[in-house]
Design a protein that fits this description.
heterodimer; A: 5-stranded parallel sheet; globular; B: alpha+beta; two-stranded antiparallel sheet; 30% helix; 4 iron, 4 sulfur cluster binding (chain B)
């Protein structure tokens, strides 16, 4: 159990983001300066392995079915982190005809990291908070 | 091979390049646009920031005897328009980037500034006192006591200004 809580897998989905948050996420994950893997988490390519879901972008009408598909494939329990202003409240795109967000319409969000885009340090903060929730969830999960 | 050796020796001497952020201090650029800081004594509740905010994050509401300036960070896009257009310089963007929060704080993740109204010395109507910076801009190059002017409402201030002009013309 302790090994599971120490090394959760991250999965990232872009639901119509402008790529700003994705670049910051890539920075957080890949370059050694803000190494998010120090916290024990690793990126995975498949939602079936994921424990923490990172969502960027307001939920556009085009990307909504893909988000629902990913949410179905995630193993229970999972933690959802909204990266950027868009998934938390749709930001400047609010009330647009092609936006079906925000994210908490579809799934119970645990951590929000607003910012346009958030700083890599803020994303690390969010992932650290998500890890706390993940530990609690896996302990309570029976 | 020599390139690799150079990097290896440099890394040995200089230590790791990783920013020790969640466990240690981090660096912040001076021009980073982070959370807002609203100076309630400078703000005159003119609603310019509410008008220019592209995402509608700023709301100014009227309460009993005060205006409440609220900024909701979950829709703020940190563009800095409010700071740029603020006529009195009451809004400043700080370098505070700590925005991650749990879902139960989603609607309470705001900064609030309360702008209190005062009573006019002459006619006893309630009004928001003008800030020093605004008065300095309006009465630029005119020899007049600004602290005295702050006590009067816009109507009475207009009257005083007209009387002064009248006196000046008679001289």
């Amino acid at each position: 159990m302790s090994i599971i809580t120490r090394s959760p897998f991250l999965f990232r989905i872009n639901t119509g983001s402008c790529n700003g948050c994705d670049v910051e996420l890539a920075t957080t994950a890949m370059i050694p300066r803000y190494d998010v893997e120090r916290l024990g988490c690793r990126y995975t390519g498949s939602p079936k392995h994921a424990d923490i879901l990172l969502v960027t972008g307001p939920i556009t009408a085009r990307s909504k079915p893909y988000l629902i598909e990913v949410l179905d494939e995630l193993p229970r329990p999972f933690v959802v982190v909204a990266i950027g202003t868009c998934p938390t409240s749709c930001g400047i795109f609010r009330d647009s005809y092609s936006i079906e967000g925000p994210l908490d319409k579809y799934v119970e969000v645990d951590v929000n990291v607003p910012g346009c885009p958030p700083r890599p340090q803020a994303i690390i903060d969010g992932v650290a908070k998500a890890l706390e929730i993940w530990k609690r969830k896996i302990r309570d999960f029976k | 091979m020599s390139g690799f050796l150079k990097i290896a020796i440099r890394n040995l001497l200089k230590g790791p390049t990783t920013d020790p952020y969640p466990f240690g201090d981090t660096f912040i650029p001076q021009k980073l646009r982070g959370k807002l800081k609203v100076d309630a004594s400078e703000c005159t509740a003119c609603r310019t920031c509410e008008e220019v905010c592209p995402s509608g994050a700023i709301k100014i509401t009227k309460n009993e005897g005060a205006y409440v300036h609220t900024t909701w960070y979950n829709t703020c896009c940190f563009c800095g328009n409010c700071e740029f257009f603020c006529p009195t310089g009451a809004i400043k963007l700080t370098t505070d980037f700590h925005t991650a929060h749990f879902q139960d704080e989603k609607y309470s993740f705001v900064t609030v500034a309360v702008i209190k109204e005062t009573e006019c010395k002459n006619c006893k109507t309630k009004f928001v006192p003008p800030s020093e910076a605004l008065l300095k801009r309006a009465y630029n190059g005119i020899d007049i006591d600004l602290d005295e002017l702050k006590l009067y409402c816009p109507e009475c201030r207009k009257k005083i200004a007209f009387e002064r002009l009248h006196l000046w013309l008679r001289h």
